[in-house]
Amino acid sequence: MNNEENSAPGAAARARTLAEQALHAQAAGQVDEADRLFSEAQRLDPDVVAVVLSEHDAAVAPDARDTPAANQDAERVRHVAPRVDEPTADPGSTGGIGSRPRRG
After folding, report:
1. What span, in angstroms and rounded, lies between the C-alpha atoms of 44 and 21?
2. Residue 47's domain spans which residues?
3. How far is Cα 46 from Cα 100, in angstroms, rounded to an integer?
4. Confidence (pTM)
5. End-to-end CA distance of the chain
6. How far apart are CA 51 and CA 9, in angstroms?
7. Does residue 9 surpass a pLDDT of 50?
8. When comparing pLDDT for 33 and 1, which is higher?
9. 87 vs 37: CA distance, rounded Å
10. 28 burial class (0-12, 13-18, 19+ CB within 10 angstroms)?
């Protein structure tokens, strides 16, 4: 590191740059690179990293923050189509598991 990075204003600016790069790396799916960049930024100035993360969260719609994680989970969900020939558990149906005879 040079003297500019060791000075408070230089460290803060460098930490901001690294944190922003980490967010971009994270969005691109480069998890290891994002972790490395966040760690370095955190070491330089943790307060600046917190500000960058707050600004990022404020700029992103709440439902969109976890979209990549939600998409990954959705891809793992097993979709099972109902089979027409299997008995139904609907109490109002005719026959099958859980059905009751209708009165009246």
Report:
1. 14
2. 3-59
3. 65
4. 0.52
5. 87
6. 15
7. yes
8. 33
9. 56
10. exposed
What is the phi/psi pair of residue 76, to 5°? -90, -10
Residue scoring higher pLDDT (33 or 103): 33
Task: Let me know if residue 93 belongs to a domain.
Answer: no
Q: What is the identity of the amino acid at 4?
A: E
Beta strands (DSSP E) in the chain are none
Q: Are 98 and 90 in contact (CB under 8 A)?
A: yes
* Residue whose entry in the numeric block shows the structure tokens 């060791």: 6
95 lies in some domain? no
Residues 14/5, Cβ–Cβ less than 8 Å: yes
What CA–CA distance (Å, rounded) separates 42 from 33? 14
Q: For residue 68, name the pLDDT band (cuts at 50, 70, 90).
A: low
Domain count, the chain: 1
Euclidean distance between CA atoms 15 and 21, whole angstroms: 10
Spacing of C-alpha 7 from chain mean position: 34
Helix, strand, or coil (residue 98): coil
Instruction: Decide if 91 is inside a domain.
Output: no
